[in-house]
Amino acid sequence: MKITLSEHSTIQVFQTVEELNNAFSYLNQKDFSLVKISERRKFFSKVFPYQIVHNTTQNCYDLQADYYIGLDWLVKEKKYIQVEPKINRKLLEIYKESLEKEEKEEEVDENTDKVNQEAVENAQKDSDNLLQVNYLKMLLDVYTSRISPTDIGKLVEIYWDDKPIEIQQKEDQLTPFLVVQFLGLLKIIVRKGLKKSYYKVQENLTNRVKGKILVGQNTKQNTFKNRLTSTFCEYQVFGEDSLENQFLKKVYQFCLSYVQNNQGFFEGTKNEVDATINFIRPAFEKVSNSIRENQLKNFKHNPFFKEYKEAIRIGNFILKQFSYNISSTSGKEKLETPPFWIDMPCLFELYVYQKLLEANSIERTKIQYQFKTYGNHLDILVKDGINSIVIDAKYKLHYKKGHIHQDIRQVSGYARLKKVRKDCGLNETDDTHIKCLIIYPVLENGLEDFSLENIRKQLDENEIKAYHKVYKLGVSLPVIA
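^ that's the sequence the OP posted. Answer follows.
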């Protein structure tokens, strides 16, 4: 049994009653009592991926999705929640309108928040207002931009030790995400060139000895069979056919099979996925398939190959997801998947960062992602003296006036940090105010030219008038029609 929500949507969960209302979800009395608010897990031990409150007035649970997509148990092994990558068109419109009201310095009626909340909730009930975000397209774009795996960080957390959840194959969000992520990482590795290293080879040689003789194997394969001219040896070779590359090739073959058998998941990204696959294929032609299943299950990366670390981590996830059986990549009606959460706000930040890097190849050294200082994490910092910009990529949209003010105050506070000003090339006696820019998602008429020159031209006409040197720009989200 499942409860389905889209991003930032709300639903009420009641105990079972005779007359069921489709607007709510229900649990029987026993399962209702088993809901443990305090035991819900945090995404990488930091934030809750969804909110749940016991509504004592109506004796129900108010369940609200945040901006993490995935699925998890609400009641262990009985009821789970699934958050889909769908965004509310009305919420985007209200956020944009709220920024424009700040821009015009209009006073907002005290009932505006309530009116906005009702508008968002009503829009949630109409499927035409819910647009499916093409998160695979966003992920592919991130990996084509040469952003380092270190900057990309951990976008997904998977709970392998929990009991898996049975879902319809068409509802699977985790597997296509992992496949696209792995192919992106593999493309980065192939672009640099596969690492060469010394690796061990075992071979039955004729009329010669190389390396060391494996006495046990030689006795079984040669001595007992009276093959007196053969010797079973183990020796080292320098090349690309190392265990690490064999592992990557094996996972690549799993991904290739999955893409071929599940075309529906890659709607809108098919050309990009095929191009990535074709780019990778020639690099592994000289890498063998000799890695064994027991080696796959216990494989660990060699710390000497640092850029391989993330690809091997994600590769292990993919093999676990397919139970190390390539036939599992073919389309099935139902499948079992572990609970997991995907960080959409972080993916949006990377998507914006990728757009900036792509449009500013000459000035890319001025653009820094996740600038850290005194416990603060700036999304993006453009370090260019008096032309510097602090950018906050805001995927967590709000419709409440107080929350929007908080977003603006947050980005303004970042611009006043001394370390930020110093890194931007401003000395302590310089009174220049660093410009602040809030980038938020829109569905149409979003920024197309991400060059710093064009962004600076756009700022004056997109200033939030109630604040000094605070601006806003919308970026179009890729959606599946």
